[in-house]
TrEMBL record:
Cofactor(s), names only, from the UniProt record: pyridoxal 5'-phosphate
UniProt protein name: serine C-palmitoyltransferase
UniProt similarity note: Belongs to the bHLH protein family. Belongs to the class-II pyridoxal-phosphate-dependent aminotransferase family.
Catalytic activity: L-serine + hexadecanoyl-CoA + H(+) = 3-oxosphinganine + CO2 + CoA
Coverage span on the entire protein: 39 to 481 of 748
Organism, as annotated: Musa balbisiana (Banana)
Amino acid sequence: KSKDLKGYAPICLGLEDFYTRRLYLRIQDCFCRPIASAPDAWFDVVDRYSNDNNKTLHRTSNTTKCLNLGSYNYLGFAAADEYCTPHVIDSLKKYSPSTCSVRVDGGTTNLHTELEELVARFVGKPAAILFGMGYVTNSAIIPALIGKGGLIISDSLNHNSIVNGARGSGAVVRVFQHNSPSHLEEVLREQIAEGQPRTHRPWKKIIVIVEGIYSMEGELCKLPEIIAVCKKYKAYTYLDEAHSIGAVGKSGRGVCELLGVDTADVDIMMGTFTKSFGSCGGYIAASKEIIQFLKHTCPAHLYATSMSPPAVQQVISAIKVILGEDGSNRGAQKLARIRENSNFFRSELQKMGFEVLGDNDSPVMPIMLYNPAKIPAFSRECLRQNVAIVTVAFPATPLLLARARICISASHSREDLVKGLEVISKVGDLVGIKYFPAESPKL
Ligand code: PMP
């Protein structure tokens, strides 16, 4: 009703200040946009992160620091790592923050080639290519790999960067039910007759796109079963490991390692450097032929300024720590720690009676709130007690499946986690989101 809304109106009227920030529905076309804010209920502007691997953050509106349970800093490499940071500072002095050039015209430093080789070795593929942003890696690579005459079959909960890449490719896009190999098979069967070779069917090529760990669900991909279906119908597999690379697997090599999948069975392995590696950028790892093809044809490689050298150095150093090539066993300790922390936190939340989505070993832990009206209260009360937790709602989730999403880090100590659990438990009682009796097994 307000003049400011200009045709946009909050739906589910009366749902408190959540709607003043996040959810606005343009009745005609369902576009969403935020128009105002509720400063005490959200993270607002972060003044600085502490020198403790991003474990605490300082909000400008609040002088106290918050325990950070919202960052993707899975291995604790973000900010002030004893091995990475000095190397990053050196690279800043040597190469400057930006190459100010595209890869093919002076924007390739020896750090870029070193990281491409290291990523390929780390994820277990013959070659890799870097991009300045994880989001762009999906949205630009998918159209470079497939176009008109091709078919993309995408998990229904794939990230927006995949959705945009698929839509922009010109290929026909079909969606299969989240993490359901049997529905994937149904969709594939509808599109082609079983057993035909790649060349004798209505599609030039078929790519099936999935994620290693789903970012809003905390759930591991059913990768072995998905790959079996792809092989049966001769479709290519594209795996986004944004949340799984570095975070799971005995040596941090992601869901393939965790689930015992041969990386030769995944055609395109995509990942970002913004989570486990504490940096920016993204990669594609694949066969030498695919990477060579992308280097010659992908506009985001040919026309975009290359990845910032200090960001590249951060990833090189982080992978060296993970592989133990820094001369310490910190990498192995971090990997053990994130697994231990994640499994401890998840089981404690379940014992308290919360409905927690996702699988063991996954550091992504959504607590279901359901009713979006509970979001501001949950977020505000946690922040008041100096715990920062990300809350997510429509359009990132279905309208009535709002949730708080906790991300666990190897840098959290047991005391941090216990403090977080105490606050979440109190707030959970206050907001009324303990849907199961305490100590009851998960349904
Ligand atoms: N893929 C997935 C699954 C993601 O969750 C994200 C962002 N969180 C991206 C890609 C984009 O990565 P970035 O934030 O590094 O641009």
